[in-house]
Each structure stands twice: as structure tokens, then as C-alpha cells.
């Protein structure tokens, strides 16, 4: 039996989901990739934490242990913020590994340069999980762009905000209680201010805009607004009037560049995003031939996000070397 060697950077909500999905979907991956995916090491920050379900000898807090794995093919990255993740991904590319990341903060700033470095080394960068969780928005835009020109993108890109707004409307939750529940469910960022003040949606819009239009919008005039100014009273008043608050992002190609907006908006029943409740995200892409294509799916959470990362790995079919299983599990044990 041969294997494809992978390493995991981060073992929080998303990292655990990727590890679990590789075990539970091993047969599908084997059929697609021609060999089993073997997780050879898991990088964490705090090596002393209890990690049920993962063999102790796979854990390390030293990135050099990852770099020293022979024939490593895929590095899944699910840690938080730009550094040290960016340095780790650059070193992984230099080692000849394909990388798959969920880290939108990093990717919004450094996605282009990472992709250029990867292409020079003949490897790929999967970033489906950076935007809209399990909903395949990146893949859809790439497919559309093969022939279409994209003129506009509009959507709900933060699962936490949509979940909070839904709980406040449907179950009279306070903002604080709804945020706490979204943290418990693993939807919110390590610093949830990124979610509720609109910065997470901003990073995702920057990623989509760069992909769809080849440039990022300038938001210095319109600014970025989250959901924190909306009160329970506002939401209940809107409900009585048959309206719903949504945190909406949009980006449109104009003759002066990309015009964008990120703010809460009141929608009526006739709007296509009116019914997108809970942790769902939805993105409507307007394309020259296809018209408007709308993708909807879980925008955050362990398994939907892992699904996006595993799909990126599955897309490497035909590009991966398989090797005999190793002794790697004992590489850095002790
Ligand atoms: N949660 C979600 O639904 C989604 C999250 N994302 C993105 O995925 C990434 C991970 O998110 P999530 O799993 O929720 O985050 P968590 O906070 O749950 O987990 C982060 C993991 O990264 C590890 N880590 C943090 N800093 C370092 C470091 N310097 N060196 C090594 N390991 C480190 C932590 O280690 P330790 O366990 O030791 O603390 C932890 O295992 C983020 O970039 C996030 O924006 C993307 C889509 C959806
Ligand atoms: N915190 C993010 C997680 C997914 O990207 C969100 O709530 O959308």
C-alpha cells in the first residue's frame, strides 16, 4: 500500500475537521488520489493541551519537524493570522509541497505572492476554505472565468454575523448571548470582533474581488461596517414590517475600478438573500454569459470548512507522488 503524506498546521475547529474528514472519507480520497492520505504530523501552539482523537506522537510545536518529513506532499494550514503562518507556507512551498489554506487574513494580504511562489515551484495553493466555508464559491468563480467576464458579486460572507442576526430575530437572543453560542459552535474567529465589525467579510471580499476582477476595491471612502450598531429592538421592529437585516457585501467593476460596500442592509421578502438564515452564506455572481449564479451553503464550522479544504486536496489528483508508508510517526517522537 502506498500513501500521500500530509501535514496539518493548526488543530482548532478547522484543523480537527480536516483530520476527521481525512479519516472518515479515506476511501473516497483513495479512489480519487490513488493512495491513502496519511497525516504525518500536526503543528499546534500549545503542545500540553489534551487532544482526544489524535495520536500523541503526531503532535509537535516545532515547524522544523514538519519541514523534515521526507516526501511531504500536502500542507493544510488552519492557524490564525499572518505570521507565523505566512512563513510556514512559504517554507512549505520551497520544500515542494502543495498548500491548502483556510486562513483568509493571510490570504487576503498575501494570496497573490503565495500563488506566484507556488507556480514558480510547480505546486498549487488551494484557498476554497478562505471564503464562504463549505460553499464552493472560489471554484465557481474560477470555472465561470474560463469564458465569462464577471461584473458583480454580492453576498453574505460572515456566518457568525448571519447566525447572530437570525437568533436575535427568531429567538429574541441578545447580541451577547448569540455571539457566545456562535463561539461555542466554532463559527466565530479567535477574535470575534473580526466577525461582528465586518473585517472578516472584508478579507473575504478582497479575496473574491482579486480573483474575479484582478484587483481589490478601495474601501477608504465607503468604509466597513459590521452588525454591532443593530439592536434587538431594530431587528424586532423590522420583523414586524416583514423585513430582515443582512450583513451584505458587494463589489462591482466600474470604469473607475472596483466599487465595494460592506454593511448591514434591511431586505424585503422579494430579495434573493432574504431567506438565507443561520450560519449560511450566499454569494450571487453576475457573469457576462451565465447571468447571475447564486451559491449557498454553510459559511463556517468544522466540517463544512474541512470539506472545502479536502476538496482542494482532491483536486490535486494526478499531481501527487505516492510513497511507501513510513516510519514517520516515530520521526520526532520523544
Ligand atoms: N472556524 C471556522 O468556521 C473557519 C475558520 N477559518 C480560518 O481557519 C483558521 C483556523 O480557524 P479555527 O480552527 O476556527 O481557529 P482555532 O482558534 O479554533 O484554532 C487555531 C489553531 O491554530 C493553532 N495555532 C495558533 N497559532 C499558532 C502558532 N503560532 N503555531 C502553531 N499553531 C498555532 C492553535 O494551536 P493550539 O490548539 O495549541 O492553541 C489551534 O490549534 C483561521 O485562519 C480562520 O480564520 C476559515 C473558515 C471557517
Ligand atoms: N468566522 C467566520 C468563519 C468562516 O470563515 C464566519 O463566521 O464566517
From TrEMBL:
SUPFAM superfamilies assigned to the protein according to its UniProt record, in alphabetical order: Glyceraldehyde-3-phosphate dehydrogenase-like, C-terminal domain, NAD(P)-binding Rossmann-fold domains
Keyword Amino-acid biosynthesis in record: yes
Residue ranges constituting the Homoserine dehydrogenase catalytic domain according to the UniProt record: 136-312
Family matches, as InterPro entries: Asp/hSer_DH_NAD-bd, HDH_cat, HDH_short, NAD(P)-bd_dom_sf
Start and end residues of each Aspartate/homoserine dehydrogenase NAD-binding domain: 10-128
Tagged with keyword Oxidoreductase: yes
EC numbers, comma separated: 1.1.1.3
Pathway annotation from the record: Amino-acid biosynthesis; L-threonine biosynthesis; L-threonine from L-aspartate: step 3/5; Amino-acid biosynthesis; L-methionine biosynthesis via de novo pathway; L-homoserine from L-aspartate: step 3/3
Superkingdom classification of source: Bacteria
Record keywords, A-Z: Amino-acid biosynthesis, Methionine biosynthesis, Oxidoreductase, Threonine biosynthesis
Database matches in PANTHER family: HOMOSERINE DEHYDROGENASE (PTHR43331)
Family: Belongs to the homoserine dehydrogenase family.
Name of the protein in question: Homoserine dehydrogenase
Species assigned in the record: Fictibacillus iocasae
Amino acid at each position: 500500500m502506498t500513501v500521500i503524506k500530509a501535514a496539518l498546521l493548526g488543530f482548532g475547529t478547522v484543523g480537527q475537521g480536516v483530520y476527521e474528514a481525512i479519516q472518515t472519507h479515506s476511501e473516497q480520497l483513495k479512489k480519487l488520489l490513488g493512495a491513502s492520505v496519511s497525516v504525518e504530523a500536526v503543528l499546534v501552539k500549545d503542545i500540553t493541551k489534551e487532544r482526544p482523537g489524535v495520536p500523541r506522537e503526531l503532535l509537535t510545536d516545532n515547524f522544523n519537524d514538519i519541514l523534515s518529513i521526507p516526501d511531504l506532499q500536502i500542507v493544510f494550514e488552519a492557524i490564525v493570522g499572518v505570521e507565523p503562518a505566512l512563513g510556514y507556507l512559504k517554507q512549505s512551498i520551497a520544500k515542494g509541497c502543495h498548500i491548502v489554506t483556510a486562513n483568509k487574513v493571510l490570504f487576503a494580504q498575501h494570496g497573490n505572492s503565495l500563488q506566484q511562489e507556488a507556480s514558480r515551484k510547480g505546486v498549487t495553493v488551494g484557498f476554497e476554505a478562505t471564503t464562504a466555508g463549505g460553499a464552493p464559491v472560489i471554484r465557481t468563480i474560477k470555472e465561470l472565468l474560463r469564458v465569462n467576464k464577471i461584473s458583480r458579486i454580492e453576498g453574505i460572507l460572515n456566518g457568525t454575523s448571519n447566525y447572530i442576526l437570525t437568533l436575535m430575530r427568531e429567538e429574541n437572543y441578545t447580541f451577547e448571548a448569540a455571539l457566545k453560542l456562535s463561539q461555542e459552535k466554532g463559527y466565530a474567529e479567535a477574535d470575534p470582533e473580526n466577525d461582528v465589525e465586518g473585517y472578516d467579510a472584508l478579507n473575504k471580499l478582497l479575496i473574491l474581488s482579486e480573483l474575479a476582477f484582478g484587483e481589490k476595491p478601495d474601501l477608504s471612502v465607503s468604509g466597513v461596517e459590521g452588525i454591532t450598531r443593530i439592536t434587538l429592538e431594530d431587528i424586532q421592529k423590522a420583523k414586524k414590517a416583514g423585513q430582515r437585516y443582512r450583513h451584505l457585501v458587494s463589489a462591482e467593476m466600474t470604469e473607475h475600478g472596483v466599487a465595494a460596500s460592506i454593511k448591514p442592509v434591511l431586505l424585503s421578502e422579494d430579495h434573493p438573500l432574504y431567506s438565507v438564515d443561520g450560519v449560511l452564506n450566499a454569494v450571487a455572481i453576475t457573469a457576462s454569459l451565465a447571468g447571475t449564479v447564486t451559491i449557498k451553503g454553510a459559511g463556517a464550522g468544522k466540517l463544512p470548512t474541512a470539506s472545502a479544504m479536502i476538496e482542494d486536496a482532491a483536486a490535486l489528483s494526478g499531481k501527487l507522488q505516492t510513497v511507501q508508508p513510513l516510519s514517520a510517526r516515530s520521526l520526532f517522537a520523544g
